[in-house]
Amino acid sequence: MNLKVRLPVFVLVMEVVMIALYAVFVTYDDNANAKMQNNETNPMDNSVYRDYPFFADVQVMIFIGFGCLLAFFRYYGFSGMVFNFLTATFTIQWAILIQGFFQFYHDGKIYLGVVNLVNAEFACAVVLISFGAVLGKTGPVQLLVLALLEVPIFSVTEWVVLKYIRINDAGGSILIHLFACYFGLGVTFVLYRPGLSKGHAKEITSYHSDILSVMGTLFLWVFWPSFNSALTLKGDDQHRAILHTFIGLCSSTITAFALSAVFNKRGKLTMADIQNVTLAGGVTVGASVDMMISPVAAYCLGIMGCTACFFGYRYLSPFLARHMKIQDQCGIHNLHGLTGLISSTAGICAILLATEETYGPSMYQIFAHRAPPEGDPRLLELQMQIPGLKPGLGRSAQEQALYQLAAIFSTIAAATVGGLITGFVMKLPFMASPSDGDCFDDELFFDMPSDFNMIPFFKLLSQSAVFQIFHA
């Protein structure tokens, strides 16, 4: 039984399961339900006008940004882009169901609106980041199984952290970047291929594949402010998130160019640095992106994230591959792991420094768990200043910082264990895993055009005897 049977059977089974679950559980939320509209309803108050722009921006990141970015291998461009497309579409529809049970489930129904789609896209981003660790070494069935298992594990972890530990993580540095990174590392550890320890003949890039990958970087770069600000409180919080993300991305980009030139033996730029390291600032501002950290702090975080990411690619990734059996194909530990740890640490510092003098009464909206609990006279005073302020847990800054720290360790632990388990499932014989020799090769999965293995004409000409004679 080959891919011709395995992939269609898997897809058919999952479609039947999802049709049944959607039919039983999923319905429209109030903003999409015609029965909830009346003569007094103003159509322009519909949440679609508030949420859809962010949904559209993140969708561009998911399908075009990640897709192009993963197409940097010379002989694996089809697979990088198309398997990203396949995995993303499956993940989003699966995440709508799984996350719906934890976040939007009431009265026996999952109430579907655009905000559900945004949340599902974040779950999809988690899967695609993890995908980067095993790029080129897995088949489409394995990737769908990765998504099938990672989404529930991620959703449970997210639910536990947000409901019981209760943290601030507007940009997802802990729950998206750290989780995705260590889940992916767990998977790639189990799928370790000793035959590829010294590389693969087709594990190379080309002029055109690098250009396509940089296009992906540019799409991610441009829309990252929407990613970091999509789920923040509307108003000044969201405004700060956009500003901080843009500043962090700018500082990490120019730092990446400088480091790339300095550490290149010939003083030239390396495309891998431009494709990946320039994005580090978007991650490092994530945990504190909606806080009053100041623009200069966002600038410094961008530099710090870029520096850690750059040296991670240069020294840490080879070390992990040689000594810890972690073949991190896209270097997700550098772009999402190291920067996620820096971002989480910065978030803790921002929480410890937050005071009413800096934030005013709105501090208890941003740090909702520090608001006074129900029955506290101070809560009534604050509610007079901020109507609608909800009771909190009365945590101090130090207590909230400790909970943030607990969330970091618990998220990494859950992701690592989940990744190891998923890796063992993906390693089962019937998962249609490519052999070592077939890795990084589109021909295993696609009908390729006739020019796939052809040497470009200008290169062929330059090597010809006639050309050499005329230029002797």
UniProtKB/TrEMBL annotation:
<feature type="transmembrane region" description="Helical">
    <location>
        <begin position="337"/>
        <end position="355"/>
    </location>
</feature>
<feature type="transmembrane region" description="Helical">
    <location>
        <begin position="296"/>
        <end position="316"/>
    </location>
</feature>
<dbReference type="GO" id="GO:0005886">
    <property type="term" value="C:plasma membrane"/>
</dbReference>
<dbReference type="GO" id="GO:0008519">
    <property type="term" value="F:ammonium channel activity"/>
</dbReference>
<dbReference type="Pfam" id="PF00909">
    <property type="entry name" value="Ammonium_transp"/>
</dbReference>
<feature type="transmembrane region" description="Helical">
    <location>
        <begin position="82"/>
        <end position="102"/>
    </location>
</feature>
<dbReference type="InterPro" id="IPR029020">
    <property type="entry name" value="Ammonium/urea_transptr"/>
</dbReference>
<dbReference type="InterPro" id="IPR024041">
    <property type="entry name" value="NH4_transpt_AmtB-like_dom"/>
</dbReference>
<comment type="similarity">
    <text>Belongs to the ammonium transporter (TC 2.A.49) family. Rh subfamily.</text>
</comment>
<feature type="transmembrane region" description="Helical">
    <location>
        <begin position="243"/>
        <end position="263"/>
    </location>
</feature>
<dbReference type="InterPro" id="IPR002229">
    <property type="entry name" value="RhesusRHD"/>
</dbReference>
<feature type="transmembrane region" description="Helical">
    <location>
        <begin position="54"/>
        <end position="76"/>
    </location>
</feature>
<comment type="function">
    <text>Functions as an ammonia transporter. May play a role in the elimination of ammonia in the gill.</text>
</comment>
<dbReference type="GO" id="GO:0097272">
    <property type="term" value="P:ammonium homeostasis"/>
</dbReference>
<keyword id="KW-0325">Glycoprotein</keyword>
<feature type="transmembrane region" description="Helical">
    <location>
        <begin position="141"/>
        <end position="162"/>
    </location>
</feature>
<keyword id="KW-1003">Cell membrane</keyword>
<keyword id="KW-0812">Transmembrane</keyword>
<keyword id="KW-0472">Membrane</keyword>
<keyword id="KW-1133">Transmembrane helix</keyword>
<feature type="transmembrane region" description="Helical">
    <location>
        <begin position="6"/>
        <end position="28"/>
    </location>
</feature>
<keyword id="KW-0813">Transport</keyword>
<feature type="transmembrane region" description="Helical">
    <location>
        <begin position="401"/>
        <end position="425"/>
    </location>
</feature>
<protein>
    <recommendedName>
        <fullName>Ammonium transporter AmtB-like domain-containing protein</fullName>
    </recommendedName>
</protein>
<feature type="transmembrane region" description="Helical">
    <location>
        <begin position="212"/>
        <end position="231"/>
    </location>
</feature>
<feature type="transmembrane region" description="Helical">
    <location>
        <begin position="174"/>
        <end position="192"/>
    </location>
</feature>
<feature type="domain" description="Ammonium transporter AmtB-like">
    <location>
        <begin position="18"/>
        <end position="429"/>
    </location>
</feature>
<keyword id="KW-0924">Ammonia transport</keyword>
